[in-house]
Structure formats: C-alpha cells, structure tokens
Design a protein that fits this description.
Radius of gyration: 24 Å
Order of helices and strands: EHHEHHHHHHHHEEEHHH
Largest sheet: 3 strands, antiparallel
Strand order of the largest sheet: 3-4-5
Number of domains: 2
Strand content: 5-15%
Number of helices: 13
C-alpha cells in the first residue's frame, strides 16, 4: 500500500490535500503510541471521515495521554492501551484528594479526551479496552464533585453593538486590509456567523471553492424593508456533510449595514469569482485572521441584559439619524 511521508497531494479532511503541515499538527494521533511512521493512503482517506477541528481535538487528547505515560515511566508505549492505562489516566488527569499535580482538567474534558482515545484506537485498527462504563462513570463523577468546589470560570461576555462601532471606527481610516476586516466583522456580527466560515484557511495554492465563501455565493434580493443578502456557506461546522448552509443579513440605514459591507467586497472583486474576504489582502495577513476563529459561535451566544438592550436600541437610533444627515 502506498505510504505518505512527503507533501504529495492526497485527499484529506475538508477536501484539502494532506501535506507535511497537516501531519505536523496531528503527530500524536498519527503515531501508534510513541512510534511515528508514514500514514498509508487508506488511512489518509479514513481521516476525511472526521472534520479537521475534530481531529485536532483528538490529537490533543492523545498528546495528554502520551504525556501521562511518559511521566509514568513508559517511554515506549504502543497501542492498544490497557484497562489500567485508561483508569489510571482518568485518576491522574481528574481532580481528586489523593493525587495532586499541575495537569488536572475538568471531568467533562476527560470525557471528551476518552472519545479522542477511542478514535485513536479506531484509526490504528486497534481494540479499545472494554471497561465497565459504571467504573469510568464513577471516576468522573468523583472528580466532578471536586470540580464543583472550585470557583466557576466566568463566561465570556457578549459582543455588543458598541464593540462593533469601536472596531469599525478603528479600522475604517486604514487601508484595504483594515476595511476588509471591518466588513468581515460587520457581516459576521449581524449574521451570527463564525469568522472562520467566511475566511479561507489555506494560505497557499489554488483557491478551493468547497472551502471558501466566494463572491458568487452572495445573492442580493429586494425585501420588505429594503434589501437582504443570502450567503451560501459550505462545510460550516454546524452543517451536515454535503449540505451547505445559508446565512441571511438584512439592510440597515446606517454605517453598520451588512448588505453595504458585502457590496463593498463585491465591488472590489470587480466581477471575479474569488474569495469574498481575501480581496487585496496579502497571504500573511490572511493567516492572522485565524486568531479570530472560535470553536463554535454557539458557545458565545449570550443574553443581553435589559440595560444592554436599551443601549443598543439608542445606538441604532443615533446611527440612523447620523446616516440621514449625511
């Protein structure tokens, strides 16, 4: 069977070729323990059954497990893991009254890591140890009790309209790159979209239409309140395989109108079927946008307080008045 140990093009997750860059990000998951070896073309294809972000999460779980084995004195671990390995890992990683270290994580995180370890075994065609679910469940439950005694980490506050205004004021006087980022933020805010859904994550090579929102993916239509834009998003994190999602934004009578932001992008493209938010932006600047990507926009939905709602309504009214004066 053909093996992959270079940057030759093999189809992988999200319709992208498997490269050395990809392999470097999943070294732990690709290895059969502490031993690294080239990935077969069959396994490269098998990887496409998972979303790339999912594989990265699994890789984090395996790295944690291998780190645990190294600390335990086993520097030559090889799959499959034993029942004792899994139970000891849960005890080592979970908070408890008998073993203290600086590597503790929450019980829900351990549960996710166990899913990653199961996937790791599946990928390497190894049997995951059959452990009574009740025993693992009790281990996690015991750690959860300790977790509950710790102060809760505050949730991130919502992004408010005043933040978007501040960002727009800061970016508008800038060059093409700043204006592109401003339009991206405006459309993402009103469309409740992840920035990663509107940007292209591959800095090199030909544009992959299956992994980017193109200018041809935007439809402008009349609506009862003016205009609306319908944006087709492929491979969205919350979409089913092969089924694109649509994000709809409506026109506003002020400077934060998402439809106007899209029109600016389309105008700059000048009829070219290209990436919607990569227009005129150097490759190194596009890469910087990756820092804006969250795991899932749903994690950041927060309820506005009554005061926040009232402030936002006043801001919109003031913006509309200013727009009419201009």
């Amino acid at each position: 069977m053909e093996m992959i140990d270079s940057s030759e093009d093999i189809v992988i997750v999200d319709n992208q070729p498997l490269t050395v860059g990809h392999l470097n990000k999943i070294k732990a998951f690709a290895a059969n323990g502490t031993t690294h070896y080239p990935i077969s073309t069959l396994n490269a294809h098998l990887l496409s059954g998972w979303k790339w972000n999912t594989i990265l999460g699994y890789n984090a779980a395996v790295k944690k497990f291998i780190f645990f084995k190294n600390l335990s004195g086993n520097h030559n671990f090889k799959l499959p893991a034993l029942k004792k390995d899994i139970k000891d890992f849960c005890f080592w990683a979970g908070r408890n009254l008998y073993l203290n270290n600086s590597y503790k994580i929450s019980a829900p995180s351990i549960k996710k890591y166990l899913c990653g370890l199961k996937a790791w075994h599946t990928f390497h065609n190894e049997e995951y140890p059959e452990i009574a679910d009740k025993r693992i469940e009790l281990l996690l439950k015991a750690s959860s009790r300790i977790d509950a005694t710790l102060p809760k980490k505050p949730k991130k506050p919502p992004i408010l309209l005043k933040h978007l205004i501040w960002l727009s004021n800061a970016l508008f006087p800038g060059g093409d790159i700043d204006k592109t980022i401003m339009d991206l933020a405006i459309v993402s805010f009103w469309g409740m979209a992840r920035l990663g859904e509107f940007t292209y994550d591959n800095p090199f090579g030909e544009l992959n239409s299956e992994n980017s929102v193109l200018t041809s993916d935007v439809r402008l239509v009349r609506s009862a309140i003016g205009e609306k834009a319908i944006i087709t998003v492929r491979n969205a994190k919350t979409a089913q395989p092969g089924k694109p999602q649509e994000i709809v934004v409506h026109s506003l009578k002020n400077m934060l109108c998402p439809v106007l932001a899209l029109k600016r992008r389309l105008e700059e493209a000048n009829g070219t079927d290209t990436s919607l938010y990569a227009l005129g932006t150097p490759i190194e600047e596009i890469c910087l946008l990756g820092r804006w990507i969250s795991n899932s926009y749903r994690l950041y939905i927060r309820e506005y307080t009554a005061e926040d709602k009232e402030d936002s309504k006043k801001i919109i009214a003031e913006l509309n008045e200013l727009w009419e004066e201009d």
